[in-house]
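Table S2 (continued). Query chain:
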Amino acid sequence: MSDFVAPEEASLLHEQGLDTFEALWNLPLVPVDEPNVRGKGISTVYRLCIGERSYFLKRQSNYLTRTLRHPLKGETTLAREFRNIRLYRQRGIPALHAAFFGERNLPGERQALLLTPALDGWLDLHHYLLEWPELAEAERQDVLGTCGRLIRTLHSQGQKHSCLYPKHVFLRRQAGSMQACLIDLEKTRPLLPIRMDRVADIETLVRRAAAWDERCIRHLLASYLDVDGSDARIDDWLQRLARRRADKESRG
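Corresponding output:
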C-alpha cells in the first residue's frame, strides 16, 4: 500500500529511519493523553522529537467512521483528516500539514497513522481567551481580526470546519503581523450554499469564547465580512448567531 511522505520531510525521516509505516507504527512512545476508544477501535496521540524538530504522531487501530466515500465499511478517521489536510493546502487555507500518512489492512485490523509537525511557536485561541482581560486592546483587535480573516478564507474556499473550537485555532506573531491556522480537520465538509452553514461555524466558536462580549464579536464579524464595524450586516449576523445559540441551548 502506498504511503504519503511530504517532500520537505522525506530527508529527515529517512536519516532517522522513520520513513516507513512499520518504523513509525512500532516506535515505542508514551501517549500524551488517554487514548480515545470507539467500540473496538482505539486512537492514540504521541509527541516525539525527530532530529531537532517536534512532531505529533496519531496511531489508530479499527478506529472507523462511516462517510459518503465509505458508507458501509467506513474508513479510519485519520484517512479523512489526511484528505482534508491536503484539501486545505490545495485551497490555500492555513492549517497544519502532514509529514507522513499510511494505512494497513490486516486480518481483523485496520491500522492508520498520521505524523504532523508540532506547531511550536504558536498558541491556541483558548490560551488568548484565558488571558483576555489582561491583553492590550491592540492585541485583542489583532486576535479578533486574524480569526475573522481565517474563517473568511475557510468559507470562501467552500469548506465548513464543523468543529471550530478555540483549541483548534492557532495563532502566532511573525514579522510584526499575526497569523492563524486550523487543526483537527477530520469533520470538515463542503460548505452548503446557505448562510446557516457559515453561521454554524462561527456560532460554534463564539459560544466557547465566553471572554468575548458583543463588541468583540462585532469586530470578528467585521473582519469576517470585510466590512466597516458600523455596517448593518453585522447586526443581521448577530441576530442569526443569537437565534442559533438559543436553539442549541433549548435542545440541551
